[in-house]
Amino acid sequence: MFAEHWFYDFIIYIYALSLLFAFSDLMQPNRPARRLALLFLVAVWLSQTAFFVWRATKLFPVLTGFDSLMFFSWTLITVTLVINRFYKMDFFVFAANLLGFAISAVNLFIIPNHGLGLREPLLSELVFIHVVMAFLAYVFFSLSTVFAVLYLIGNSLLKKKKWNQTLRRLPSLGRLQLFSYRLNMLGVPLLILALILGVIWAQQKVGGGFWFDPKIIGSLLVLAVYSVYLYQRRAGGWNGRRLAWWSVLSYFTVLGNYLISNAGLSFHQWL
Question: For the residues 141-163, what does the mean pLDDT come to?
């Protein structure tokens, strides 16, 4: 237990160093600082990967509450690194990993549970795939929200004609909107698949009453608001600031759905 917490503290420290160097580069462009920020971020990714490999040898295919938040952070970093590898968006990398660091910091307050976190019926590959798909969807929604926030910042600076360093470092509004849309387009089908798998399992193990579970209702609400986003983007004529604000406000349903899982109101307490 002590070694595990020590290792996790080490991850938090190098994550913080990555953010500090990234922030320094954003305030005053500095190529060495930018490289160090990326190097430390890769070190965080490698450390988290090693942690998951070690945990998998002991608990696979279980994701406890402690593991699930780290998995969220790991997936967020992975997607961020892939996007940055091809598109070089320094401001996006900083904003996305500020969110990832916050999630990792929250994880410090969760005590790992090695044997009592899950009941026996939940230890199945079907549920594991369901959880992984749901978390992937939430990661895509999170990064979509980051792009939406950056769009709103860029749009506001353009309207005020503030041609400062922040505006020059931001991607174009068109690119920000496109990435926000594409990430939502990935998240919605993943969430649909996760819900289908969850319904199949719940029908077999819990019974028909699961439809009234707050977590199920919350997940359907998340699916509904992001489906509205996709519909309005494709057929409803929404564009620009309206879509960005809808994406930002929709993310509160994701946060609310996670809080439901940890408030003792659902059989999904283990997520």
Answer: 90
